[in-house]
Amino acid sequence: MLNIKNLKAQLEENEEVQILKGLDLEIGDGELHAIMGPNGSGKSTLSYVLAGKEDYEVTDGSVELDGEDLLDMDPEERAAAGVFLAFQYPVEIPGVPMTTFLRTAINAIRKQKDEDEIDTLEFMKLIKENCRKLGIKEDMIKRPVNVGYSGGEKKRAEVLQMAILDPKLCILDETDSGLDIDALKVVSEGVNNLRNENRSFLIITHYQRLLDYIKPDHVHIMADGKIVQSGGPELALELEEKGYGDLLNDAP
Amino acid sequence: MAQSETQMINPKPTWLQAMREEAWSDYQTSDYPTRQVEEWKYTNLKFMKGADLTPYTDAAQNVTAQDLPEPLLGKEGQKARVVIVNGVYREDLSNISALPQTVTVCPLNEALAKNEGLLETYLKRFEGTATHAMHALNTHYFTNGVFVYVPQGEKIEQPIEITNVTVGKSDALACCYPRHVFVVQENAEATILEHLVGSDQYLSNIAYDITVQDNGLLHHYRHQNENQNGGHQISTTRLSINEKSHYDGFTLTTGAKLARNEVHGKMHGDDGTCRVNGCYLNKDDQHSDTTIIIHHEKERGVSNQVFKGILDDAARGVFQGKIHVHPGAQKTDGYQLNNAILLCNQAEVDVKPELEIYADDVKCSHGATTGQLDDGSLFYLRSRGLPERQAKQLLLQAFITEAVDEIEHETIRETFTELAHIWIKTQLDI
Amino acid sequence: MVATQETIDTVKETQGKYKYGFTTDIDMEMAPKGLNEDIIRFISAKKSEPEWMLEWRLNAFKVWQSLPEPDWAKLKFPQIDYQDSYYYAAPKSDKDRPKSLDEVDPKLLETYEKLGIPLKEQAVLAGVAVDVVFDSVSVATTFKEKLKEAGVIFCSISEAIQNHPELVQKYLGTVIPVDDHKFSALNSAMFTDGSFVYVPKGVRCPMELSTYFRINAMNTGQFERTLIIADEGSYVSYLEGCTAPQRDEHQLHAANVELIAMKDAEIKYSTVQNWYPGDEEGKGGIYNFVTMRGICEGANSKISWTQVETGSAITWKYPSCILKGDNSQGEFYSVAMTNNYQQADTGTKMIHIGKNTRSRIVSKGISSGKSDNTYRGLVKILPNATNARNFTQCDSLLIGDTCGAHTVPYIESKAPTAICEHEATTAKISDDQMFYAQSRGLDEEEATALIINGFCKEVLQHLPMEFAVEAQKLIAISLEGSVG
Question: Is A67 on the interface with B (CB under 8 A)?
């Protein structure tokens, strides 16, 4: 599914600071990988670079999605190719109702794939069904995108978009931040429902808490722009016990 | 001039004669609008240099029904329509039969013939309101216009559309002077919708005298779509807002090479509401100037000015808004917002939101921003699959919606939203 | 809450009288009244100025004659009779200029003590180097030696003209051109003294520099000129305080202040202006027409203006920043209080020329009595100022219904990547706030002073500590008689 080789990246406007310093990662079809790491290790940068944010400049390495060069694509082309980033801080867009936004996004992706626009009834059904699953009230999606949403509502809205846009690679950037335990359960359940053999996940998180609800196949520890240790779910538990300090010192 | 028979060029009553003469002397003695005059710091009238200022009414009959734009609310939606061409009333193109008999909608010359006293009262109501030389020119030269009089307690649902067409000259600037007088009496309600268009080179110098009496309500919406290449418009609106009366105004500016939309609102009674909102969508070398001053003279008045602007290419937007709270106008609530987005390096915006306050128990605020589309929002939309152009359009539409949503009349709000969205989709090269 | 208690005490103690309204009985040497070339020659000769300086003044005088009075401010005052004022007044003892503080006329020192700045003790304790301008002449500069060690030049502008002519010639009039407007030309022709600061490359000025201005003599105009140059990578903080005695007639004060910040340099300029505001009937008081402008010449430089304006019958003052260097920053923090018949028209100009330039404006206006208080400001973004940012916040507070509060901001943007944000509010002290404070035992006046100090906090916190305390007191005093 996803193949990252020796990825190096820096901030567009500050060329002196390299953030990703040669990162390698391979995610197979249907796999769920978690990346954990201390603040400033470059986790969020990785998610932005994969989604194509222009503030970052890739200086070396490659990223392929099902054999296609991801780095060569615009953000919208990546979305059409199946990349979905659930933002740590979803952006507020006053004046655009969530429903309008969702429909525009579905049709934009369909158009890029030369597919017909979604029919109104089908769209309504899709929204209704997914809202119900995620416990989203209908009046919320009538409001402008993320404007006045609580922390939990924002994250649910991200998962709603994920469900509706039907991506193959889902990247979740600190989705657990700002969530209370109930919201965390709903969001995790939403993610778990979306897991299947054709869809892969990259979960970026600081705490292992989220991984109690979303079970990873592989866990990686990131520090200083690289993956420094990889393992199974037990690695997250070990991290929980020892903390980043100890574990990073132990690392080879 | 054959037109003068049916229009108002040869005023018979002495009061009107006197008013016109006084205006001429005002024009000659007042500061001619140049950039040295504070109120005209950002708008230059050099295009008028050497122009023949006398009203150009010769082309008034050149327009046929086929030349007219569709009514703004569509053929089905719009029944009552008044057509003014070059400041001349075109009865043959107008249709006011759909309006209730109780309401007066007629050209000024007819109002003068049938009810001179009434017209005199409402034309003179604003004497002493300081304006500027261009307004004085209108008073001196105005040829005709629409008189709308909604009597006490009368509520008309049907919007009255005024289609204002200006046929200019290809080789020189033609000057036209429509003058409109709207009166909404106690407890009455009306909706006036205007569409302003034109061709070739001209200056449409329009003036409005609007009175909303106690408990009255007037919706007044304008789509200014003058000729972008040679059309100029200077409009001066004088408003009298009385006790518990409500004025809801909105101007959608997409047209004209140069436009100045100037509004002087006076809150003459307690508990009045004065809403003067709009958006300006400009590109190429268009210049649009919005200048508003709202005088809060009585207590508990509410005023609202929300403007949004999009400026592409070398377009220039000017917003000068002032809330003036007079002594004793306690509990005034004044709000002013101007947000502008510049899409191109040559574009420019000049903003001067002013507060002048002489009462202590008031709540007045203003906000102004200028900038470009937010990168974060743009990336968010693109990461959801929207191509860059579509993402930008969506954000610009959303940006404009916040101003258009101020329109209280639902159907017209939808129409104007659509007009603004079409402009964003078709006129911008982003 | 120490400051607050002090504020309250001061309010009680002063009982609404202008605290600094005493005159000092010192022998004065005056030039004849009036404004003409002879007076300029007299002043120049008195100061043994070089020929180039005299020429510069005479040229400025010609310019002054040709310029109209600026009329755009929202101020009402009678035509100024420039001929009915003295342009030069110096304490007689100037003839034998004091070599050290010990030799300063004890009466002068007493004056400063009344002003609350006993030079010796307080200067030493506070570590502030003080230059004192009394009417027209700089009388003493403390800490000169210590500054010398650091390489900082801090002296009166008259001395600088004598001792550092190359610096003065190079920079004088470069930020505020002589022909900028009527008052800048007047100052250029007539300036009698002022301060000069030069901070060399890489030097962080070891102490706060300070000037105290005082107008003492009758019918005198004061035209001081200040020039501060911060060379590459240097830092200086400069404070200016002003007072004047109580006089029935209006007195004119037209200062010019020029700041120049080179690459990576920072200048912080603070003013507490408490010139005599006139009495309750609007009689007397200083006409304060001040031009202050700084240029961020080099990349990453910064100029920060902080002002507390409580005095003067008329204040006409717009400390501005020309942000020429890339990434340079300008700041303007202002509190302007007006009472009785005072008029203030003050604000700033931020001219963004360089890339990534930033500016921040925070203005708090408080009007009471029959006064008028106007914020007037310009934010101008030129086409090359890509990614420029401005934030402006203007808040006005009205106390009573016979005063006026006005906000006149201009925003001119020619760069699409620039972001300007402007917010302004006008309100009165809420009944809830008053009730809350009063229910805790404060009387109306105390409560008002407390709330107003809170309203101004964002600005006051930018003042150096010892000034902040004084500013809080001043605010309380200025409020006197405005409540109830």
Answer: no
